[in-house]
Amino acid sequence: MLEQRISRRTFLKGSLVAGALATFGGKLVPLEQAEAAEATSPAASQVVPTICEMCGVKCGILAHVREGRVWRLTGNPRDPQSSGRLCARGNAGTKTLYDPDRLKGPMKRVGDGKFQPIGWEQAFKEIGAKLQELKGRYGPQTLVWLAHPELISPLEKHFMAAFGSPNYTGHGPTCYSSRNVAFEQMYGGVPGVDYRNVRYYIAFGRNLTGGIKNPDIQKIVAARAEGAHLVAVDPRLSDFAFFADEWLPIRPGTDLALVLALINVIINENLYDAAFVAERTVGFAELKAGVATYTPEWAAKITGIDAATITRLARELAAAKPAAAVDPGWHAVTGSQYYNSVQAARAVAALNALLGNLGARGGLAFPPGIKLGDPSSIMGPKPPAAAGPRWDGAGSEKWPLNKAHGMIQVFPERVKEDKPYPLKAVVIQHLNPVRSSTDSGAFIEALKQLELVVAIDIQMNDTAYYAHYVLPEATYLERYDPLMTAGNKVVLRQPAVEPLFDTRGAEEIIAGLAKAAGLSAYFNFTLEQYNDALLAPLGLTQAQLARVGVAEVEAQQPDYTKLKTPSGKIELACQAFVKAGSTLTPAWEPPLVEPGEDEFRFIQGHVPMHTHTTTDNNAYLHAIMPENELWVHPSRAGKLGIKTGDLVEVASRVGKVKVKARVTEGIHPEAVFLAHGFGCGVPLRKLAYNKGANDSALIPVITAPVSGAAAQCETLVTVRKAG
């Protein structure tokens, strides 16, 4: 394999790394100019427009190909996501394509950590036979499909529907479930922030420049340059807290109290948008009564943020309305960190409503809608209705609001209990729950109990390492996928090069499994036919879209006067939560656990140069950050005799890890922080193996009420210097 000749220094110049925000100033090159430049190259070359998959944002990119090799990736200036610019991860994509440790063909487990190559047809035949056997013995619901939802997810769900199982589950409970449940019930969907035009912005734990979404960070950087005021509320001096105008190091898990106090001030001082509240919301009187006791003085005792600061924030936020926004969040405070995350998300939703910012410039917005075609006519007969409830109870009477998100973290418990029915088989696609869910040890034990574990991925990750069969997917630079929409544009992923090894696109793998499992009638179509059916109302075909990569089409703007809620308005008081066992309006709930004198609250999160557990073996990104460190405040580290660089043991009630310490004032004294995505336990991934610590090994299974999210930061740990 040829080695890409680029120095780390040169690479960093073209990437966003850890707060190197100035790198967004690169020149935008029109596609036609890029193609012309390639045409003048002495070697045969071309520029292929496609979609990145180095994270979940899916920016449009240009793959520069010379003599059959991708030698460079740049942002596609026609794409509304990248706008011609890429982050560090996007620039590093060639090292994923040419990773010498990536999977090169189907593998069958023959012992602990031992696999042998197997042909595709034999793999399909054996897996299909086992699926049919298990279906006959236990029913179709015995199969669970776990995935990080990607562009291929409609075909994954189609497979499960055809098989007769209701058990398709995404990673949402470890990421965004609480936020989604709150906004879905109150707003009818999850809006985003108009980052480009916001004038006053508060992020509760949202590390916007750390857990990078390329289009969002480009816009917030531009907004700040034009005078937007940015406030980071976070127990840690995150990348975004460093970039923001203000950092408020709040006590971890108490953000809800601060949001409730902001609502209290804005209502009591009549700072809210009265016309908007009257016309576009219901339940204001109930909200006002509900927050009456949540004063700044009350919140100050809980959060550690003084009352004067809370009052000032509320007044400044309201003064900037409607170009003011509190971020709905993602993984952090409102997503999946605390037992009170759904209440925090509800409070954030209510606070934004008081600002009258939904649909306003600089406020919250829903994306426009593009009317795509219905491909069901080419996808075979209508699948029968699934028999029985979901494996995790999502959508049941106990969990009525989270059917779309599920509860992946309870998988080990359900396997062990055999309730509500036996789970004997799992397909895991583009996901690594052994290191991305909770309690790694329990997940490994669950996998060992199953009769069939199939992993579909581009790499031998920690979960695939325990699979019976590992089916290698082609990388995003080697395959087609179902098309995506972004704003008023449709975008196509297409291969820049032929697959380097004996790998296949996910649609081929799913179709192969389906036919081997007796479901041929449901997969007698090609991916091109599927995309053509989606594009038909737009007068386009996949072949036409492939030539340009991105096409602008007619899109329908959202109707903010008629939301997808029972009232058609924002529901500040929401009966759906009462029926789910919660309160009518957002209310204070303390964190589930509190650290004792010798304990810390364990918090974790993302970094800008890695994506979950998928990039730690990428040579460029590994060079930037090869391992994580445990952040400890000096006041606590001194008592423990710990200095920066010392190896420490971190222990919770479910596991222990050893990792290097980083002593810093950038962490609240009550907490320690560990970046997610390290501690790979697979020796086949040579760069990542045993680098840093796996945070998931420390996190017990705690399921938050109402949303069913995994409350990952309700974890207490002890720290000591390792012997």
TrEMBL record:
EC number(s) stated in the UniProt entry for this protein: 1.8.5.5
Keywords from the UniProt entry: 4Fe-4S, Iron, Iron-sulfur, Metal-binding, Molybdenum, Oxidoreductase, Signal
SMART domains, A to Z: Molybdop_Fe4S4
Xref: Pfam families: Molybdop_Fe4S4 (PF04879), Molybdopterin (PF00384), Molydop_binding (PF01568), TAT_signal (PF10518)
CDD domains: MopB_CT_Thiosulfate-R-like (cd02778), MopB_Thiosulfate-R-like (cd02755)
Domain 4Fe-4S Mo/W bis-MGD-type positions: 45-101
Keyword Protein transport part of the UniProt annotation: no
An annotated Gene Ontology molecular function: 4 iron, 4 sulfur cluster binding
Family: Belongs to the prokaryotic molybdopterin-containing oxidoreductase family.
Protein name: Thiosulfate reductase molybdopterin-containing subunit PhsA
Originating species: Neomoorella glycerini
Source lineage: Bacteria, Bacillati, Bacillota, Clostridia, Neomoorellales
Name of the encoding gene: phsA
